[in-house]
Amino acid sequence: QLHYSVPEDREPGFSVGDLAKDLGVEVRSLAARNLRLVSEGGQRHFQVDLAAGVLLLDSRLDREALCGQSSTCSLHLQLVMENPLQLHRVEVDVLDVNDNAPQFPKPEVVLEITEVANPGTRLPLEVAEDPDMGSNSISTYELSPSKHFALSINVRGDGVKMPEIVLEKALDREKVPVHHLTLTALDGGNPVKSGTARVTIHVLDANDNPPVCDPPISKVLLEENVPVGTLVTKLNVTDLDEGPNGDVEYSFKTSNNAPGKFTKLFSLDARTGEIRTKAPLDYEESSAYEIAVRARDKGSPAMEGHCHLRVELIDINDNSPEILLTSVSSPVQEDAAPGTVIALIGVKDSDSGDNGQVHLQIAKELPFKLVSSFKEHFSLVTSAPLDREKAAGYNITVRAVDSGSPQRATQKTFYLRIADVNDNAPNFSSPFDTAHVQENSLPGTSVFSVSASDPDEGSNAKLSYSILDNGMQDVPISTYFRIDQDNGTIYTVRALDYEQDKVFQVPVEVKDAGSPALSSTAVVHVFVLDENDNAPSIVYPSVPKGSAFHQAIPALAEPGYLVTKIVAVDADSGHNAWLSYQLQEPAEALPFQVERRSGEIRLAQALRESEDSHRLVVEVRDNGTPSLSASVVIIISPEENSVQDFSKSLDLPQSSPEDTNLTLYLIISLVSISLV
Predict the structure, then answer these.
(1) Angle, CA 391 vertex, CA 390 and CA 393 arms, to 5°
(2) What tens digit of pLDDT does each residue of 262-279 get?
(3) Alpha-carbon torsion 111, 114, 119, 124, what sign?
(4) Which residues of the chain are under the pLDDT cut of 50?
(5) Which residue range is the domain that position 170 belongs to?
C-alpha cells in the first residue's frame, strides 16, 4: 500500500508520487504489464504517466467539495498490473489550503436586551462558517471595543467555537437605546483570513428574566432507523417570570454546519418542547446531528434562551457486505502451480465497528483458497493441482459475512474455466488386436480399424494414426499395409500370398496434435487366410508334360496287386490341400482301381491273356472351392513271366527339407484355421 499527499489547490499535471520507484519496478515494464488505475467511487482525479512512471493530478481538487467537514480527506486508488497479476492500493491525502475566508450566515445581526439585564447576561451569536479544516478553520472571534459589552467564546462538544456577547456594565436605555458593534471571525491560516458581521443591540424595557435551558448543552444517544415519531427528548426550560413573560415558545435555530438539514429529520413541538423524529435516520449518512433550539417567552419585550442538543446515532447492522470482483483470470491452465492468483476480490460494508468487519468464505472442497492482501482486499489462489479431465470448470461462490448481530451476508458466484494442457497420451482400446484377410485380396482392401481415445480436448485430443517400420519384418511392413491417419483403418497395399507370408505383425502408433505431442502404440496381428489358388502337383511319377508313365506288371498278377502309387502335394492348406485320386475313365471298362485317399493303383480283376496295354488317366483333385486338379497318364503293360517286387522297384521320391517344411506349414495352417 502506497501513501501520498497533495495540497488541494494544485493544478492538473502536478506530480503526486513516483510509482515506479515506490513499487520497485522498472519504468519501461509498466506499459508491458498493462498498468492501469482504478478509482474507488468512480470519479477520476488522477492519471498515470507510463513513460515516467509517476502519478499525476488529473483535475484540480477541492477538499471541501470532496470531504466536507471531515477531519481527514483521503482518496483511495487501486493499481492493477498483469503478468503476473498484482494489485496495489494507493491512498492520497488531500491537504487543506486556506482558500476560504470565514463568513457569517447574515451580514447583520439584530439583538435585543432589557435595560434591567444584570451584568453577565449573555447574548448568543451565530457562529461564522469556514469550509476549511484544522488550523485553517475558524480560530477566534474579535468584537469591536465597547463600554458595556465584551466577547466570550465557548467551545462546543464537537470543537466548534461559539461566540457570545456578555454584558459587563448595566445599561441605560434613556442614554443609549441602541449599540452598534462589529464581530470579526478569524481563521488560523497563514496569511489569516477574516469575515465580519454588523451587530445591532436594541435595549428594551420590562421583561427581565429570559428562559433558561437546563442543561444548556445536552447529548442523546439514539439508534438509527427508529420509527418515525420516536421521542428524542423533551427540553427542560424555565422562566422565572409570570404570565406572558414566562410563557415559552420553542423554535429551531439553524446552525452553520448543516443549515436547515436537521429540520427535515426532526420535529419540535413549539408548546411542549418535545423533539421527535419525522424521517428515517441513517448512521451511514451522518453519525450525529447538532440541534439548536430557541426558547422565547411572550413578554414585552420577549426574552429568549438557547438550548443545544447533540443527537448521536447508534449503528445497527442494517447494511449487507458488498463483494467487488476487481479482476478474474479465466480460463486458467490446468497445470497452474499452487498459489497462482485467480481473482482479486474487494469487500466493503457501510456499517461501522463489528457490523462493518467482513470475512470472506468459499467452499472447502474447492481447490482454491482466499489470501488476505491488505485491508478489505483478498486474492483467490489455487491451493491444489487442477485437472481439466476431472473438472472442466468451477462455479465459485464467494460469501461475505459481517460480524454484526444478527449477521448479514452476501454472496457472488462466478464461473472459472480450466484450460486444457496436453497431459494425457492417447490410449488404444486394446494393446493387441487380431485381424484376418483373405490372400489375393485386391490392394486397398480394408483389414481392420484400430480405435484410440484421448481425454484431452481440442488439438490435444486430435489423433492421427501411422504404421511403424520397426525392423521386425524382413521387408518394411509399409510395403504390405497402409493406415488412414484420421480414422485408423488399415488397408492392404498389395495382394498377399498365404504361401509366402501367413502372419504379419503391424505396429500402429497414435499421436495427438498437442505440443509436445504424446503417443502410444499397439500391435495388430494380421493372419492371412488361405485361398485355393494352387492346383495339386504330382511328384510321382514325374513325367514331362504331354508324356505318359509306363508301368509293367506280371500278366498273371492277381486282383489286389499293387501296380503303382500316385504321390501329389498341394501348396495350399486345410481343405484346400486335402487331395483325392480318381480315374477319369469309367471304372467298369478298366481292370484297375485307384484308392481315393492314398493314390494306390491296384489290379481290380485278373487280366485276360489277350489283353494288351491299358491307358489310365489318373486325376488328383483338391477340396477347395472351386476345386483345382492335375492328372497323369499311366500306361500299364502286362508281361509274361514278369515277377516284380513293387516295394523295391517303385522309385518313390525321398522327402527333401523343402517337403518337410511344407508339411510343417500345412500343419500350422490347419491348426490356425481350426482356432478361427
Answers:
(1) 165
(2) 888 999 999 999 999 999
(3) negative
(4) 644-660
(5) 108-204
Please state, in angstroms and rounded to a whole number, the distance separating the CA atoms of residues 410 and 280. Answer: 24
Asked if residue 571 and residue 553 are part of one domain, the reply reads: yes
Q: Which parts of 35-145 fold into alpha helices (H)? A: 63-67
199 and 247 in a common domain:
no
Question: Which of 293, 314, 335 corresponds to the end of one domain?
Answer: 314
The type of residue at 670 is L
Q: Which long-range contacts (CB under 8 A, 24 or more apart) does 64-68 make?
A: 64/100, 64/131, 64/132, 66/94, 67/94
Predicted local confidence at residue 650, as pLDDT: 44
Domain identity same for 554 and 589: yes
> Is 656 a member of any domain?
no
Q: How many CB atoms lie within 10 A of CB 629?
A: 15
Secondary structure letter of residue 356 according to DSSP: G
Element (H, E) at 257: none
Alpha carbons 489 and 508: distance in angstroms, whole number? 11
> pLDDT tens digits for 432-489?
999 999 888 899 999 999 999 999 888 899 999 999 986 555 778 888 999 999 999 9
* Domain final residue, candidates 95, 129, 164: 95
CATH number assigned to the domain comprising residue 223: 2.60.40.60
What per-residue confidence (pLDDT) applies to 654?
43
Q: 32, 185, 171, 192: which is closest to 106 by C-alpha? A: 185
Q: Would you state the pLDDT for residue 269?
A: 93
Q: Which residues are paired to 434 by β-bridges? A: 525
Mapping DSSP to helix (H, G, I), strand (E, B) and coil, where does residue 21 land?
A: helix
